[in-house]
Amino acid sequence: MAHHHNLRSTGGAGKPYGVITRGTTGHNRLRRCDRWTRFHPRVISLLRSVHTPLALDVGYGASHTTTVEWARWLRSINPRIDVVGLEIDPERVLPPRDGVRFELGGFELAGYQPHLVRAFNVLRQYDVSEVAAAWQAVTSRLAPGGLFIEGTCDELGRLATWVLLDATGPQTLTLSWDPHRVATPSELAERLPKALIHRNVPGEPIYALLAEADAAWERAAGWAPHGPRVRWQHAHADLIAHGWPLTSQRRKLRDNTLTVDWAAVSADVH
Question: Maximum Cα–Cα distance for the chain, whole Å?
Fold first, then answer.
């Protein structure tokens, strides 16, 4: 039997594209990505540009929980949004709940052309050689201007990472963590997206980013009495001053977050 972190996908001839994964989930596990998505300017513009946008949650797992939570966040952007959860395991396909439909499907998107797709803790369990094809399968099926969020997190959602993609490929990498439960940014190395986790070695850009984030965090130690969020704000500004192409943080964030241009950490996955 294939190891859960090295699964290979199947599909074709009308069958869902992907493999059945463990399906573990939990309440608020994806809250950091949910908050980031809710306030992302590009997501907001996209979901408000059409009357009834469509969002797909691919591989929601053994419970409806995180898909229903995601739908609530998305409805605060556009209350008319249609949210569908897709699962490759027929036994996990659930009756409609809280305005969300659940259907059989995988990275082929069950024939839909959605505006927004999310797949969390799915590709992490695949073989790394499968990532590019899965990304392409999704992005080639997006509605015009559509976006794909692909990421991973720990079991309690205390730390999370994700890639934002559009039809042209990956755009940004985001790292987000609980300010009070994660000691240094490099702790997120264990939950990097599948495309990057094996690249976290000396000489690779993602390794350099995590190392420099730790160094900036250490240099901001003088701000520690003001709390970890304020300390990270100064570390984040330090990273920008040192040339890292990070997205500016224009509002107060509950989470410590870093969003960097994909080109700065690229691992030759396109």
Answer: 60
Q: Domains of the chain: which residue ranges?
A: 10-264
Predicted TM-score (pTM) of the model is 0.90
44-57: per-residue pLDDT in tens?
999 999 999 999 99
Handedness of CA 180, 185, 190, 194 (dihedral sign): positive
Helix (H) / strand (E) containing 41 = helix 41-48
Assigned CATH topology for domain 10-264: Rossmann fold (3.40.50)
Question: Under 8 Å CB-to-CB from 28, ≥6 apart: which residues?
Answer: 69, 157
- Are the C-beta atoms of 259 and 174 separated by less than 8 Å? yes
| DSSP summary character for residue 269 | -
The pLDDT tens digits for 2-26 are 434 444 444 444 566 555 454 455 5
